[in-house]
Description:
2 domains, TIM Barrel, 17 helices, 562 residues, eight-stranded mixed beta sheet, globular
Amino acid sequence: MHDLIIRNAQVFDGTGLPAVLADVAVSQGRIVQIGKVNGPTHETIDAQGLALMPGIVDLHTHYDAQVTWDRTLSPSPALGVTTAVIGNCGFGIAPCPAPLRETMLKNLSVVEGMDLQSLLTGVNWEFETFGQYMDQLRRIGPYVNTAVFAGHSVIRTSVMGAQGSTQAEPSPEQLQAMQTLVREAMAQGAIGFASSFSPNHSGFGGIPMPSTIASEDELRALTSVLGELHKGVFMMATGSRASPDVMESIVEATGRPGYISTVLTMYNEGNPTLGPTYYERCAQALARGHELYILTSCQPLSFDFTLTDPYVMLSHSAFNPIKNADVSAYADIYRSASFRQAFRKNLLQPEAGILFLGNWRHIEVGQTSHPENAALEGISIQDLADQRGLDPVDVFLDLALAEDLGTHFVGKFFNNNDEGVAPSLKHPASVITLSDAGAHLTYMCDAGFGLYFLSHWVRETGHFTLSEGIRRLTSEPADRFRIPDRGRLHVGLPADLLLFDPDTVGISKPVPQQDLPGGGTRMVRTATGVHGVWVNGVKVHDGQNYVEHEHGPGHVLDHFNS
């Protein structure tokens, strides 16, 4: 008897082939038949008019801490994800000697925008070593299949303590100890090694995250373990220091695939030619037989901010008075005609490296603090200015002042132009992922990148066919990260399934939800058009709610293809 039969679905196998109208039978967690299925079953679903695809594979998440208190890895399963890779950029919580737990969490709270009180309250420490952390994940039973990176900053902290953020050169003994921890993590099932040289990655109190001050020699010493073992992938938040040439040389030296993650590859109207140069450099590396790819975002990169913390504006000289003033004086500064005139002058001639270049269509009202303004949420400042016949600088500042500076704005400064973004998505060096799910929860939730891709890039713009779009979200990322048996809907493989309506699939805007440990609030998105998500044949979400399981069906992935 089958456990489940999904009948009359348009079945996409994840490889890019056209859909076939078929039934799909599942038994003991695996797909056992595709076609016309007869015989008894415990559950039947009529999927007439719906599409069935492999679950989405999300290669770039930060659920390392959250999974210890939330086995669902919310909201990813509700948004169609059935496999997630954690520990990206080298930030995580294992290995971690007990005396360093607070240091680890304080740094994580800043670099990944997590609520510190939630971390201190919620993280369940049943481990010190990487292997013990993997064992804990198996006891927890995550709702999705989960793979874990060995992380540079985590390992540097474990060996060097707080000095990992201040001491650029480790002693020979410390470097050897770090190499040993990488070897141990790989032996205990790590998917590979992750690091960051990004200058934007700061820890608690503004200190650098440990890996960002490490030398290139140290990075090469640690990645050499992958070459020594002939396994694992290398993921790097590169910044400008780990250039494509540096990355390619590491790929060549280790024989392992490398993945670049940096905002420098994203479309930026202030420097529209920069991102394509990264893709071209990777294409050249691939042509030389060196596997170097870019983790590519399909969504606008959003910056949530208020005028009590206008960090996206501080590079404009008009905001210099803000830097030296108490927050109680901000309102008077924003009201002053001299400030507004100086800001307008900045926008007429923005300096190099400025984040906001003056296009007010790229800033919209996020979350208002006064109920009477709720209807403004989601509207750009330029549209509001056009409606009111006012200057957008005045509209922007006056709205914030009317709400006692409590208005949240959303700036979409990168990946904000479809024609600029589409070539990167179609490039052979791109791997579509980069959700950052589990991180930056106070102002964003990009965990639904896959559903956004299906709605925007497939249905709305037609840049991809549905079968090709599904391939880019399933078999391709699984293959790139050497994850076996995932991302395909074939007989004999695990039944990781997403049932959806292609005509309505999509995601909501971010909405606040107060459900973190210690009462913290996070932004989440909900799905439209999703009718069910299964992991290893077990339903984890019905399209409306999570299905309760004392032990989730996700596997802790610890064996990977070479």
